[in-house]
Amino acid sequence: MGISHEYHSTHGRRRRSKAGTGLRLAGVIAAILLLSLAITAILENGEKQSEAAQQSPAAGTAANILAPLPMQGDTGASTADSTAGEGSGTADAAVTLEQFGPARQAAGAYQVKAYDSSVIRQPSCGQVDLSYFTDAALLGDSLTVGFSDYSINLGGALICGYTGVGPDAIVNRSAVKSSVRGSEVAMDVLTAAQPKKLYVLLGTNTLTTLGAADRFLAYYGQMLDQLRQALPGCVIYVQSIPPVRPQAAAEKPGLASDVLRSVNEQLAKLAADKGCVYLDLWEAFADENGNLKEMLAAPDGVHFSAGNGYGAWVTYLRNHAKYSASNSWTMGSAYSAE
């Protein structure tokens, strides 16, 4: 009896021990499963949040970006103009992204502006020798005719100046009159000459009345396309329409300062679209009020004086050539090897 009782007691303890071990093992397994489920849920939630963050732009990111950030040129016309005392002084600052990017900023807080003429214009870039213009040509109206009439030295450049013409005459291949060569078709003369640089200045004759800008710009764009096709490899410089004196603007409202500034802004963008170099002549010719400087003006208030006016023009062209290591730099200029 004693042995039997002891056997049963020992056997019972063993069964209870096995049962306890099984319960503990089951508890561990259950805990592992719960932990695995929790980790899976956390990872899935994190992936959803990451996907949502990728799909939604961060607040504070500039919307409606119209143009890339500028790589050269002034950051605003007003600063440059106040320093030089020559520009229009009305252009807005160029692309500015102050403290750009934090996601905590309110959406739409930043605006990126398209290029304007203060960014597109060719900056001053050393000074080239007059020999730089040996293989150049100038295409324009009566302002360009002055180079021939006043025998202005521009390194032997071909002068294609025609009184009273606009871009429509060039596009339509109209017969025009050169004061040097007589009647000719401008596009034929340029095609035969194949200049390496072409300076275009048209608009003063075309824009004398209000409402002429759209037609002028449409023809100007066609003209640039034709010139690009006829002169492969040629660097085409588009010059802004220069300002006039107040009395001239009163007689010809299409040449008023604010009208010309608006047209020149569109001309700058057109030049950029066509792969041309834009030259802002207002830097040299405009006073603080956006009028042609009196000392540079001819008596009619539209054309340039033979001495100061054309001298300022030649100097500006020499200082704003597109950079090339092969340019004939003036001795002592920024890029001169002398």
Task: Describe the fold and architecture.
The structure is a single chain. Helix 7 (213-230) runs parallel beside helix 9. It is built from 11 helices and 7 strands. Helices cover 43% and strands 9% of the residues. The protein has helices spanning 2-55, 77-84, 117-120, 142-149, 167-171, 186-193, 213-230, 246-251, 257-273, 282-285, 308-319; strands at 136-140, 158-161, 175-178, 182-185, 197-201, 235-239, 277-279. The strands form 2 sheets. It has a 5-stranded parallel beta sheet, with helices on both faces. A two-stranded antiparallel ribbon has the order 3-4. The protein has 2 domains: 1-56; 121-319, 3-Layer(aba) Sandwich (Rossmann fold). The protein is α/β, with parallel strands linked by helices and 338 residues long.
CATH architecture of the largest domain: 3-Layer(aba) Sandwich
Strand content: 5-15%
CATH first level of the largest domain: which class?
Answer: Alpha Beta
Task: Indicate the mean pLDDT.
Answer: 79
Globally, the shape reads elongated
Strand line-up in the sheet with most strands: 2-1-5-6-7
Count of alpha/pi helices? 11
